[in-house]
Amino acid sequence: MAVKREIRLIALDMDGTLLNHNQEITEENKKAIKRAKESDIQIVISTGRPFQQIERYMDELNLSSFSVTINGSEIWESRGKLIEQHLFRQEQIERLWKLANIHNLTYWAITEEEIFHNNIPHHMDLSKYKWLKFGFDIHDTNLRNMIIEELRKDDLEVTNSSPTNLEINPLGINKGSALEKVCDRLGFTMDHVMAVGDSLNDISMIKKAGFGVAMGNAQDTVKNAADWTTATNEENGVAKAIYEVLGSC
Prior knowledge:
249 residues, alpha/beta, eight-stranded mixed β-sheet
């Protein structure tokens, strides 16, 4: 491993990265994050989850600064201070909703105030909501590939957070572009960032970071995009990556 620049910010994905299979942050990961903070390194959660689902973890880690949520559709400066938000256009969300119905897909959707899981009423006026992310879970590989091709015809960012799902955001909205904006506010570039993740929605930040790290349990495409691969999320891979960086400081 060769860290080319001083690391001033560590961006951490959550599911499959910071969290183990019990959805917990291990004590080893907590200790490593505390050490990084003591070394004046910013810790930024960068996740596909909405802010409401990360607050308790931020409390555990005593984090109060920037966070990137919903794959970059929202950027938060501090608790309750939303500084940027990106929404689907009305026609985009209608196309996604139509696609879910035509193929009878398992789906979820995140609005500014609510999360839907296969329960959007057919009579609902979609225009009354602010739509931030749409997702499908498709176990049939052929069908999933067909849906990907359909989605790519539109102005959409298509990634995943597991091998069987699809996560959809407006085109250009991703963790990497959001972290660039965080770095701008902090006064340094992505060269000084270590980004750690396991899925396709992490590739944008892993590629743009000065030091991109894939988890040991990451999808192969993510490992190929990364500068280095750490241990799995069950083996304190985040802590191992942090200690490697601290050791090179």
